[in-house]
Every structure is written in structure tokens, then in C-alpha cells.
Amino acid sequence: MTLDTVLLAVGPGDADRIDELAEAVIEVAKPADATVSLAHVFTSSEYDEVVDRLDFDAGIDEIDPNEVATRHSTIHNLAAAFDEHDIDYEISGAIGEHGPTIVDLASSVDADRVIVGGRRRSPTGKAVFGSTAQEVLLSAPCPVTFVRNDE
């Protein structure tokens, strides 16, 4: 199977695992000379919070999620790692529930691999809160690599 496109989908909880995510992407994308689709997925409330925090011009009616993602520090740090390893990437932003939005992005960019981060959770935690990673693992149109944070 050829690997042309790797989707790395990040969210608010991924700032503390940038190195691990970058390493996982570099490991699969570099040997295949694949392009990375670097996407930040926001829920509506997360998006509003980030737009406020990043001081976007209040006069703009609609702020492009791609622009918000491009200005986000998690994306900046990952992009720097990809630049250092000479990996091609494209940045995008998406608004929606994390799991389904990541699955939709994987289809829309025709991803050959999806990489997502997550943390270890108790069975009760998964049942009560659901699991983005679990949804992506079960629903993505391609193989998924899960980068776990044990903290």
C-alpha cells in the first residue's frame, strides 16, 4: 500500500504531546515522501475561545477555521518539526465534534493513514465521556495510529 497522505488531527489536549505526535508522523511520512494534512479540530465552544484568545479582528463576521488553525501554537510547533525534517504539509482547521469531524477529514483528504493522540482512560471514563480516538479507530476509512499520553 502506498502512503501519499497522512492526516494528523490535533485538538486542545494535544499541546503536551507535540513531540510524540511529530515523531509518529515523521516515522511514517518521511520514508514514503507523503504529504501531511495537519488539521486542528475544534468544537464550537473551543473555537470561540481560541478566536477570542488569539485576538482576531472583532469586525470580521466570519473567521476562517484554517486561519485560526494556522495561528495556533500546537500547529506552529508541529509545522516546525515537519520543516526540520523536510516533510510537506498543509494546514487546515475544522469545527465539529472531534471524532466524526476527524473521520470526515480523513475521507475528504483521501488519507492513507490517520494519526491521533489520546490518553489512557478508565472503562468508566470511556463509557461516560466517549472516546474520540475510539470513534476514529472504528470509523476511519484507513489505518489509524494512536499516540497515547499516559499522564
Automatic annotation (TrEMBL):
Residues 4-148 form the UspA domain. It comes from the Archaea. InterPro entries: Rossmann-like_a/b/a_fold, Universal_stress_UspA, UspA. It holds the Pfam family Usp. Belongs to the universal stress protein A family. This is Universal stress protein.
